[in-house]
Amino acid sequence: GSARKALTAAAGAATALYGFARPALAYYGLDVENPPSKTFKPVVAGTCVYLLYTSSRQSVRGQREIKRIKKAQAKIEEEEAEYMAVAGKAESDADIMASLRNRTSTLGDDDADDD
Fold it and tell me: Across the chain, how many H-helices and E-strands are there?
């Protein structure tokens, strides 16, 4: 049923492709009126089927890739929101230095008591 329809469509496409390819085939010295073998047209038909199949697979791959990218983008946005949600106040370098000086002076006072 469907295989026969596909083969008929491929044969029709091969005939059309053969008609378009005649000048190129003649240029390369291939006798287009008397093909070299009886398998010439089926080979062209098979090539057409292959090209149609691979081009249809490309659209499926493209759709899968778009889904994968959207999923990854959502994950990245979720992680970004998680990392950017910071509670509390942000400290500047000056605040950190003042805290370290306080701690150093406190430690220095402890060392002075030991002497």
Answer: 3, 0
| Torsion of the alpha carbons at 94, 98, 103 and 107, rounded to the nearest 10 | 120
Please provide the average confidence, as pLDDT, over all residues in the chain. Answer: 76
CA distance 84 to 90: 12
Looking up tokens 């400290």 gives: 91
In angstroms, the CA 104 to CA 112 distance is: 12
List, for residues 42-65, the tens digit of each pLDDT value. Answer: 777 777 778 878 877 788 888 899
Using alpha carbons, select from 11, 94, 110, 112 the residue that is nearest to residue 3. Answer: 11
To the nearest 10 degrees (0 to 180), the angle between helices 40-84 and 2-27 is 110
- Is the pTM of the predicted complex or chain greater than 0.70? no
85 vs 66, residue with greater confidence: 66
